[in-house]
Queue: 4 jobs
Job 1
Amino acid sequence: MTYKEIKDKTPYEILDLLKMKEPPFNPFEIAQKLGINVVKDLDLDKIETEGQISVDEKGEPIIWINPLKNENRQRFTLAHELGHLANDILPSIENPIIDSYETLYRSNTYGGIETRANQFAARLLMPLRQIEDFIAECRKTTPDLKAAEAILLIASKFEVSKQAVFHRLKNVGLIKKDYIYPF
């Protein structure tokens, strides 16, 4: 499978086609399998940027990830940029998409494209079926598993931030919308 084949594919379909079944789902490995060049060089002109997708002189996608961000942030940013590639860019790559902290983490102010890329990233890194299976496995040893404990366990297993897990669990209805997690 190449990056050209992911247009309009769901994260679940991509993981399935790449034969990736168990967490953690590494977006750097996914990008490599799709033939996408990911760059993490320090670029002081992009210090406020989380990530960017553009093309090289051959028309191939390049995703730049800010190396100053923590590993979980880099993973989510790369998954987010893969979402842009699958949903917003292919088959015609013309203009770069540059994402700042605000576009990645304040999606309520940035509209559908950024929200869709965030949802794609969450689904790619934390597929619902695998979350549910993992919670069921955890409940075998901890039957009274609380939401805060589940968030920590999922974050560790799936190699994502607690905040990402919190939002994912809220969005899929596994924790109540009014639940407040003490970050």
Job 2
Amino acid sequence: MTSHDELLLKTLKTIQAKLNDTSKDLSEVKVDIRGLKGHVAACIDRVERRLDAKEG
């Protein structure tokens, strides 16, 4: 293998590792967003119930 090929292989492996890390980070963000969406929905529900109680 030439030094050019070795450098290319090393670079591609580095990119692959960074993509794996990024993928893991995005999965964590996705979980966080799902949790946040649940909290916001619950908050909206509570506010709507309070408004309904005041109107009723």
Job 3
Amino acid sequence: MKVLIVGNYVNDRQISINRFVGLVEKGLRQKGHEIRRVQAQPIFGQLKSSPQGLGKWLGYIDKLIIFPVQLRQQLDWADIVCICDQALSYLTPYLKDCKYFVICHDLLAIRSALGEIPENPTSWTGKQYQAMILRGFKQAKYVVCSSEATRADVLRLTKITPEQTEVIEDCLSEGYGPMTRAAAVNLVAKFNINSDCPWLIHVGGDQWYKNRLGLLKIFKRLIAFPGLENCRLILMGKPLLPEMREFVNQNNLSAQVIELGTVSDEDLRAFYCLATALIFPSFQEGFGVPVIEAQSCGCPVFTSNRLPMTVIADDAAVYFDPTEHEAAATIIAENLLAPDRLEDLRQKGFINATRFTYERMIQSYDRLLPKL
């Protein structure tokens, strides 16, 4: 079949979504489908390449005015159109005569705009933008959700029927899994981090729901426990926001909180293999890929006692309330100081991660296409 994959605007720099789109594109091509990928290109956005300020408004011209015209020119070629992010649902009115489906990773931005998430207030213009996305999303002919938690939100906030939805969980990127300690040490040597200290890691962006300030508060309490004073917290992803960096400085954590920014998949795999644990205190997630990445590499996982993390990690993680920093630190400390418990988490994590293979995800999308 000829599948037209619609990806995100280039200047929005959606790293995780782009990685996911690449996996879907590669997998469907391997299944024998003919694939084209289209996405809004920076035209007015060339004047200022930024997801904020003037760049954001110029991007709206590229996304909302220019790209729909370009998309329509591709529709005659396609048997099926795949909208790879619910944030692109404003395009559904242009697809009325097409077979298509929307992949919904989460509805957090829409829920925030509706006032359901007070921790993440939305500006007036943001509310209008999300309302436009929601109007388009409600017209979707078929929706693939990344988790049951996301599917529940879809059914609650729209008139889309259960028969118009299904869950296809995300997968591990190819290449994740254990590596020898020597190989991992060699890969991360360039970062010059003291390997004699226990490493706790976090992987994620600067979105509110990642709860990175909460992570720092948990870490501050964690290193007060005897035996954990020398732990390092290694952050991979977007830089800390100013309020988070201020917390680090005010609490004299600069020597123990290490920001690496974005690292390669192979370096990330090495950090998972060497780390004592992943701490993943998100308030919300669409799926939570770092959880299964860590488990596949033998890294114990401590994460929030909220959906979808409790489903994704199953019985192979230790859970805590992400709003209770003292209690979370106590739970994590008790397990970090128990080698047998950490080894049990490693072994269970290996098993759990096998549920989320690349082949399983692609087979699910391949089976979906003829049904549309």
Job 4
Amino acid sequence: MKFPSKGVFYIFLFGLTQKAVTLECQSPQYVIIGEEGIVECFFPNQFQAIVWHDSLNVTEALVTKIEKQDTGNIKVSGSGYEDGIYDIFLNGSLIIPTVTIYHNRTFKVTVIDENLIVNATVVVVATEPKDDQKEYKHSFPTAALVIIILIVVAAAGVLLGVIYYIRKHKRFLENRKMKKLHYSKNK
């Protein structure tokens, strides 16, 4: 048997029927703040329920649960699911629709299969997006500000040009007028 890399847990329990239940969860798992995060574990194909808690104390903090009903239907429940903070794939992996710093925590996952219960813990690390992944929310206002500044500078340049032209033309007209006056006085 090949053993996993560091941080992967293999849990084997044998029941009265000698059926093995395997639960593999890598820890830590990294999710990016502001994006959808998926906390993946590799669950057995056959299970009765998978339960996620956002605490090591399983008597509280139920996040979400997926159960296979006797009718064959799948039921998803839990306060985190009902509040829209969490969701769950049919394979049991936990979905965090929008990761926040709040999700930087340790989760406990429990798999229930017939008379067997298997638990694992997963440390989830919520990280800031890298610079190239960030949405630059200020890029449009910054671009608009640059354009406005360029327009103001161009308008100021045109205005200074007009003022210079008017002053030069005014001097030319004054000189011309003076020449006419001087010419008419000399006649």
